[in-house]
C-alpha cells in the first residue's frame, strides 16, 4: 500500500518548495508533482518536514533510587504526538557493569518503542574492561559515549578517566558527549546549603551556578582537544558554557552544543514561588536560568554556534520528586518535554522570527542526524530516506496541559503554555501514527538504528602537540631536563 502526501510545502534544512511525497515500503519513494498512491493525505496549508529527532532521552532509566516514569512505550507515544519520530536514549551501565550487559537491558526495554531509536552509551566507570568493550559497542552501531562530570559518588568520571575515554573514542571513530558540570563544586555547595538549613528545591539551583557549567565545559573541550577528539556538550544551559563552545569552534575545533527546549523557555523564577511541588517538578541539572542565559542560547541557535535542540526527557512523578522533601539533593533530577519540544520551539522560535523554518528543521532533526551519523536515512526529505515525516499545520493551536498529554506523569513543566503549530499527520517509517488529536502509536513498530563510526574526520583540529619523550633543553649552557 503506497501513500501520498499531497498539496503541501516541503520544508527541509536548506529548501522550501511545493511538491508531493510518495511513500512505499517505509521509505520516500518519490518527490514530485501530481503524484498518486493507494492512500492520499491532504497537506494543504501545511509544511511537510522531516520528523523530529530527540538526541537526548532517558526512558525507564534507573536513577537516584528510582526509575524515570516514561518507558519506551509512553515515551515514544509522547514523541509521536508532538512530531518527534526518533529518540536517542542513553544506555546506562551501573558502575562496574559490562557495557554489553547494559545494551542487553536497553534492547529489552526498547522492544516497546513505537518510533525508531538508537542509543548513546554512558561511560559511568573506567577500566580495562570498559576500554575493550568500547570497540564492541561501536561494532553494535553505537558510536557516541556520554561522560558525566557531575553526580559525584555515582555516575561521575574523573578527568583522567575522561581523558582515557576520549582518546579511545578518537581511535574508534566515536564521538564523546559530556554532561558538563563541576561535580566536586556542586557537591561542596550542596553540603554548604544543607548545613545552612537550605533544603528546599530552590537550593538545587543555588548549588549549580552557571560557573560550574562553564568551567566544566571548558575543561571538557580542552581535554577533548588533547585527546584529538571532537566533543558534543549535552544540555548547554548558560552563556559561560556557550561561550566556551563558541571560542573553541572559532579556533576550528569540532565542538557541538545542545540546548534544551526547557532552558530556552523556562527560567529560574520557576524555583522561587514558594510552592514545593512546583519547584521540585522542575529540578533538573543544569537548572533553569535567567533571561540573559536564555538570550545567549537563542543567539547560539541563530548563529550556528549551538546546533541542536533536545529535551533530556527524564520524567518523574510528583510522588517520586517528594523523595527529596527534606533534602533537595534527593529530588530525582529531570523533566519531561518529548511531546512539547517541536510545538514550543515553533511557537517561541519560528513564530517570533527568531528562527527560520529551515533552521527549525535543522536544529530539531537534520543537524542531529548529521552529527550522530545517520543522515540521510534520518533527518531528510529525500528519495530513499526513511519516511519519518510530519505534516505540520502552522495554524493548529492548543494550550499545553498534563490532562491531555501522553506522558504518564501527573504534571507538565509547560502547563498553560499556548502553542500554535502542531502536527496534522505524523508518519513513522511510512506508518501513520498521528492524525491531529488521534494517536495511533504502535508499540513494537520502532527499530534500532545502527550508526557507523565516523570514518572521514574525527579530529579536534588542535594545534596542541603531545610531547611523548622528555627533551633536554640547553639554557645559557646549563642543561635543563624536561620541558
Ligand atoms: O537532570 C537531568 N538532566 N536528569 C537526567 C540525567 C542527566 O543528567 O542528563
Ligand atoms: Zn546530564
Ligand atoms: Zn540527560
Ligand atoms: Zn510497524
TrEMBL record:
SUPFAM superfamilies: Composite domain of metallo-dependent hydrolases, Metallo-dependent hydrolases. Keywords: Hydrolase, Metal-binding. It holds the Pfam family Amidohydro_1. It comes from the Bacteria. InterPro entries: Amidohydro-rel, Hydantoinase/dihydroPyrase, Metal-dep_hydrolase_composite, Metal_Hydrolase, Metallo-dep_Hydrolases_sf. The keyword Metal-binding applies. Residues 47-430 form the Amidohydrolase-related domain. GO terms for molecular function: dihydropyrimidinase activity. Belongs to the metallo-dependent hydrolases superfamily. Hydantoinase/dihydropyrimidinase family. This is Dihydropyrimidinase. It comes from Tianweitania aestuarii. The lineage of its organism: Bacteria, Pseudomonadati, Pseudomonadota, Alphaproteobacteria, Hyphomicrobiales. The gene is hydA.
